[in-house]
Amino acid sequence: MNEDTSLAALLPPAAPRPLWPQAVVGAGVLLTGAALAFGAVGISSQAGYGGVGPNFLPWLVSVVLMLCGAWILWEVRTGGFRELEEAPGAAHGYWAGFVWVSAGLLLNAALITTLGFILSCALCYLLAVQGLRRAAGQQAAGALRTWGIDLLTGVLISAPVFWMFTQFLAINLPGLTDTGWI
Fold first, then answer.
1. Pairwise CA distance, residues 119 & 125, whole Å
2. Quick one: pLDDT at residue 7?
3. Distance CA 148, CA 44 (A)
4. Rg, C-alpha atoms of the chain
5. Could you tell me which residue, 1 or 103, shows the higher pLDDT?
6. DSSP-derived secondary structure letter, 140
7. In whole numbers, what is the pLDDT of the chain averaged over residues?
8. What SS3 class is residue 160?
9. Residue 166: how many CB atoms within 10 A of its CB?
10. Cα(15)–Cα(36) distance, rounded to whole angstroms?
11. Per-residue pLDDT tens for 60-85?
């Protein structure tokens, strides 16, 4: 079979991908970096223990974000991201999963002073993982055993973080008791 009669020559060319979504992402990253830089202006630059001031990291992150945003916009102007693979997954977002994850974050923020850091973060983890499990179509997502494992995993992740901050770094986080261990 010669090149003229190959299958690729017989198929119509693929429609080019629109570039505006890439431009929106680039502009969003650039504006996020600019907003962070605007906020960093109000942070003191007086050098601390390490020789850098508290505004060093916000400035560093804002500059890197603005460089990334400018790079994305340059890529869009020169033809967009090349050799992009087709995105896996569904064509539309799974809104129920978004609700699960959002509920976890909002309940964490609302209950952290009531339940303490460990339990509120474990609840956040539980709800977020439930949203991700359901988005992936896992049949066992609703099983009581899965909920128990996810809650236990959330505790096993958040407890060492709590202890690291409260016991070793002496940073106060809300606890369930006044002992500093729960």
1. 10
2. 56
3. 46
4. 24
5. 103
6. G
7. 85
8. helix
9. 18
10. 38
11. 999 999 999 999 999 999 988 777 77
